[in-house]
Amino acid sequence: MISKVAALQATELFKNVSPDVLRSLAERAELRKLPAGEFLFSAGEPCQGLFVVIDGWTRALRHGADGREQVIHEDGPGSTFPEAAVFDEGPYPSTVIATHDSTLLFLRKEDVKRFCLAHPEVALSALKILSRRLRRATGMVERFALLEVAQRVATYLVQQIPGEKALGGRVELELKHTNQDIADRVGTVREVVSRAFAGFQRKGWLEKEGRTVLIVNIEALKRYAAGEE
After folding, report:
1. Which DSSP symbol is given to 18?
2. What integer pLDDT is reported at residue 204 of this predicted model?
């Protein structure tokens, strides 16, 4: 298994810190195993510290008043979370569950803040990460407020297209997510996602069989996602 020092250095937060300097922080880190399907913590609980994903994947989500899940973000190897709760003394902002068997490092928030005071470059990295997440959250709020559900599904599809293939032509995708997973990401239910895909097929924009999607008209899908059609 990767060493604690190497695990820390693999993150954006600590990548600019030398292994010798990181060793003192790594010695205080706790190794935790999280089986797939197990909860790490729940929204509203007091924040104890920072987690680093060594291997596996976790999912951060919130539950609405009607019990519906909304995926906030997913984190794989090299990810850190939840920086905001570590620095603002607030509770955990979301519930985190392992989607795969995962190994994590846990750093107590007092140790993280002490390390940031001693190494300002880490604090700057934390600001960069938090700023990027704020932009992503702002984009999510904007999509939910301004776009219809089918447009959100179209946006999801466009985001799955590899950059080098997004200019045009036909693109075949093997979706990583089920219709329920997509619904959790775009703030709706599975049946509505299925209807959106059926509508795209009737328009001749794509063909879908299970999780295999052949996008026939990328430009039409992009225009619809952008609210231009």
Report:
1. -
2. 92
Q: Say which residues have a Cβ less than 8 Å from residue 94's Cβ, sequence separation at least 6.
A: 43, 60, 61, 62, 72, 82
Write out residues in the chain with pLDDT < 50, as ranges.
none
Assign residue 164 a region (left: φ > 0; alpha: ψ between -120 and 50; beta: otherwise): alpha
**SS3 (DSSP) at 175:** coil
Q: How far apart are CA 60 and CA 38, in angstroms?
A: 12
Phi, psi of 13 (to 5 degrees): -65, -40
d(CA 175, CA 215): 12
Residue 1: predicted pLDDT: 62
Q: Would the pTM count as exceeding 0.70?
A: no
The pairing of strands 95-98 and 39-41 is: antiparallel
How far is it, in rounded angstroms, from Cα 22 to Cα 105?
13
95, 41 contact by CB (below 8 A): yes
Q: What pLDDT does residue 67 have?
A: 67
Residue 47 is given by DSSP the state P
CB neighbours of 226 closer than 8 A, spacing ≥ 6? none
Rounded Cα–Cα distance for residues 71 and 181 (Å): 8
Among residues 203, 208, 196, which one has the least CA distance to residue 220? 203
